[in-house]
Amino acid sequence: MIKAGVVGATGYGGQQLVWLLRNRADVEITFISSHSNVGTDFADIYGNYKNFMHERSIGVDEIPNFIENIDVLFLALPHG
Fold first, then answer.
1. Is residue 78's pLDDT more than 90?
2. CB neighbours of 55 closer than 8 A, spacing ≥ 6?
3. For residue 33, which phi and psi values (nearest 5 degrees)?
4. What's the angle, vertex CA 78, arms to CA 14 and CA 30, rounded to 5?
5. What backbone phi and psi angles, to 5 degrees, belong to 13?
6. Residue among 5, 60, 18, 21 nearest 38 (CA)
7. 29: which strand partners?
8. Which of 4, 13, 19, 26 is most buried, with most CB under 10 Å away?
9. Is 41 exposed, middle or buried (0-12, 13-18, 19+ CB in 10 A)?
């Protein structure tokens, strides 16, 4: 099982990435991070996730607490 973290998960690109990762049997999303939606349940932002994903978005300052527990970190940050 590949353990992944997604920074910028609540933006368009991040949401698409979360969708792709959630549909893989060999990936577990360990955490999602968002600048503008810290502490918010991902399913509250994107209603189509209500039945299968209830991850709380963490802030960037919390990432060091999780970084040792992942194999890969995806950055879905805004352009620019």
1. no
2. 29, 31, 32, 41, 42
3. -130, 145
4. 35
5. -65, -40
6. 60
7. 4
8. 4
9. middle
| Alpha helical stretches, state H, 4-71 | 12-22, 42-45
Residues in the chain: 80
Q: In Å, what is the CA distance from 8 to each residue of 1, 17, 25?
A: 22, 10, 22
Selected residue with higher pLDDT from 27 and 50: 27
Instruction: Please tell me whether residue 48 adopts helix, strand or coil conformation.
Output: helix
Q: Please check the confidence at residue 45 and state whether its pLDDT lies above 90.
A: no
| Residue matched to tokens 């503008």 | 36
Backbone φ and ψ for 37, nearest 5 degrees, come out as: -130, 40
Please compute the mean of the pLDDT values over residues 54-75 and round it to a whole number.
Answer: 94
Task: Please name which of 52, 1, 61, 51 lies closest in space to residue 30, comparing C-alpha atoms.
Answer: 1
